[in-house]
Design goal:
single chain; alpha+beta; two-stranded antiparallel sheet; 2 strands; flat
């Protein structure tokens, strides 16, 4: 009985607590910002050369690599069927 009364008195307190506002969305990454990455050399222990491109160029290269990979996978699966 005591527990039920305690819960009833706490219910309005929980319902009136303010809800934290949603954090603002992060600004979109600037596609013109220069980003430098090290490109490893296959078969070498020496670190690769540093290559600097814009974020948009890196994104385009990644998208083209994905498309190539998907196309290759599809051609291999259709050829083997």
């Amino acid at each position: 009985m005591m527990f039920a009364m305690l819960m009833m008195t706490m219910a309005p307190v929980q319902a009136t607590t303010p809800v934290a506002p949603m954090p603002a969305a992060a600004p979109a990454a600037d596609p013109n910002k220069m980003v430098c990455k090290r490109q490893p050399v296959v078969g070498s222990n020496i670190p690769g050369k540093k290559r600097c491109l814009t974020r948009g160029q890196w994104d385009t290269m990644a998208l083209e690599a994905q498309r190539f990979k998907r196309g290759t996978e599809q051609s291999l699966t259709t050829r083997n069927q």
